[in-house]
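Supplementary Note 3. Input sequence used for the single-chain structure prediction.
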Amino acid sequence: MNEIVNVEFDWVTERSLCSLQRVFERLGLEIQHDVDVRNAMRPAIPQFGFEYAFEMVGDEKSFAVHLHAYKIHKSVTFTLVDGHIEVRDANEKTFVATVGLNDEGACMLYVDGKERSSWHVRKLALDDLFFSFV
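The predicted structure, written as discrete structure tokens, is reproduced below.
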């Protein structure tokens, strides 16, 4: 019996490409770009009475973004944990992101059950670190 199979969307392949490891690696590259952009915004002559810088360090399972400033040392850590990405700031405030395909077939992050794009997860994690001290 020859049946015609409808494969208009290859969700199995797309979901495979939307693995937690791949999303974590891409998130790390995007965060490094965010760090570079934020560092480029620092004033040439420190108007706050101190110099500051942001730095990203880590490996394939965990990375952190650090703020280095006079008497201020804060960080946000991203850790690849079994089945999710854990984001933790210096105050131990944490959120968890998972990955999956949405109804349109796009690879998305999910925080508290809400679909989030990568930029939004980065903003949730880094907004306070990047902008609250100045």
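The mean pLDDT is 90. DSSP finds three helices and seven strands in the chain.
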